[in-house]
Specification:
alpha+beta; four-stranded antiparallel sheet; Glycosyltransferase; 2 domains
């Protein structure tokens, strides 16, 4: 299997050869900037210096703010200003700090002033006020690295941003993708648990606290809870359970390891004993899925993002102490077991099995929201027709947009499957078929070593029947 050094070299080469995305017809600046971490690890300082010069030249004025292009300016970037500014400021400041002696005083003065424009006019506020949790914390990583490099204090902003993340976290430690989504003008189905972004939130908080030199003691209890939630997402093979993903349209595959770079960083910095085994298995899956670039899964390219995103994020592995030794010794899966007895979510993963009970209830439509609660059981056919899924026209618009993006980039199979699945799911909306697996869990309790669940059978998109069933696990 590939070694860590070779993977980072190959990843850097892939990004260098794909600066202009063939799928989205744009340079994903907020991703290619992570080449700086790779250059730093590989000792290719001159390449890093040239890339910083290029990146800084992409600072543009958007309204009253200075941001990194393309951000949200070009919709085909599939990103936004806070992510691109956060990642660019983070990696540039990090590189400048790590290789301070490789730059002249004049260069430092120039780059410090350029980053300051972005921080003062945009990032300092976005890292505090952005509504989407992982995006706000991504912005905070940039502010944190700039703080260390420039010697500026932003502890107040960091505290506000982190406290908001924990305030919006569920009682069991799951970060919601878009808290109070409906109040911000979008579908409430986005206000749910997300396997793809959980580790970002955990890792970004830890990283920002460390970069700013802030004491993490007051956060450790809540960080531990969020790490337990992350562990509760893993299946025995080291992949995460997509039944806990509210942004479901991202993935046409049955699993994804595109988020495993962030998983690795979060797990490597956890003190939970199960985190070491989970990290081992996560690294194994990364190793297994890298072939010149990181694949989101084994199979045809049918997922929303492109390999530039997934490959660039491997840079976060270089921030893990002793990563080379950890990575190169991973040859197979290790037995993983973990049990979470939450107030809303119960999971039990063993070597050969996984039990999931998700009692969180939220709206879902044909593209967004969590459909399955993890239960299996009886199917009920009734004369009662299911209600129209909420925000149906929004899901239609999303499918058409995402299919167009795929088709425009030459991903014909992805476009075809998105349209086909949407058509089939439209037919599903008409079926008076109700199951406990789609049902609304009204009670989750633990008695004498068993899990007791009360559930109302429901159709796939949320219409419930007026009676409950009791299931004992």
């Amino acid at each position: 299997m590939i070694t860590f050094d070779q993977m980072i070299r190959d990843a850097a080469l892939y990004l260098e050869q794909n600066m202009h995305c063939r799928k989205h017809y744009v340079e994903h600046t907020g991703n290619t900037t992570y080449l700086l971490d790779m250059y730093s690890y590989l000792g290719e300082i001159e390449k890093g210096k040239k890339l910083i010069e290029t990146l800084v030249s992409r600072i543009v004025k958007s309204g009253e703010s200075f941001v990194f292009f393309p951000g949200l300016i070009n919709k085909m970037n599939m990103s936004n200003n806070v992510i691109d500014c956060g990642s660019c400021v983070d990696t540039i400041a990090r590189f400048l700090h790590a290789h301070r002696n490789q730059f002249s005083n004049e260069e430092h003065e120039y780059y410090r002033a350029a980053l300051k424009k972005v921080v003062d006019t945009y990032l300092a506020d976005a890292a505090r006020t952005k509504a989407t949790t992982n995006q706000r914390l991504w912005g905070l990583t940039g502010l944190a690295s700039y703080s260390r490099y420039a010697g500026k204090a932003y502890a107040g902003i960091a505290e506000e941003s982190i406290e908001a993340a924990f305030r919006d976290m569920t009682v069991d430690g799951f970060f919601r993708y878009y808290p109070e989504a409906e109040t911000h003008g979008t579908f409430s189905g986005y206000d749910g648990i997300t396997t793809f972004y959980q580790s970002r939130c955990v890792g970004f908080i830890r990283y920002s606290l460390a970069e700013m030199g802030m004491d993490s003691a007051s956060y450790e209890g809540r960080l531990r809870t969020s790490e337990q939630a992350l562990l509760a997402m893993y299946k025995p093979d080291g992949t995460k359970d997509l039944r806990l993903e509210c942004k479901r349209w991202y993935w046409l595959s049955k699993y994804e390891i595109a988020s495993h770079s962030f998983d690795s960083y979060a797990l490597a910095h956890s003190k939970l004993p199960e985190a070491r085994v989970a990290l081992h298995n996560v690294l194994y899956q990364i190793r297994r899925h890298f072939d010149g670039y990181l694949h989101s899964h084994i199979g045809a390219s049918v997922n929303f993002q492109c390999p530039i995103f997934w490959t660039a994020h491997l840079a976060w592995l270089t921030r893990i102490p002793n990563i080379k030794e950890l990575f190169d010794t991973v040859e197979s899966l290790n037995p993983f077991s973990f049990e979470l007895k939450g107030k809303e979510v119960y999971t039990k993963t063993t070597l050969n099995s996984r039990i999931l009970v998700n009692a969180r209830s939220q709206e879902r439509n044909l593209t967004t929201g969590i459909y399955e609660n993890g239960l299996s059981g009886k199917v009920y056919w009734k004369w009662q027709l299911p209600a129209m899924p909420p925000a149906f026209l929004l899901s239609l618009r999303e499918v058409l947009n995402h299919s167009w993006y795929a088709l425009r980039g030459g991903y014909v199979r992805e476009a075809f499957l998105r349209l086909l699945y949407f058509k089939l799911n439209c037919l599903v909306t008409l079926l008076p078929r109700y199951t406990t697996s789609y049902g609304k869990v009204t009670s989750l309790s633990y008695e004498n070593g068993h899990v007791r669940i009360e559930v109302q059978p429901a159709a796939k998109y949320g219409t419930v029947l007026p009676f409950s069933k009791t299931i004992i696990v």
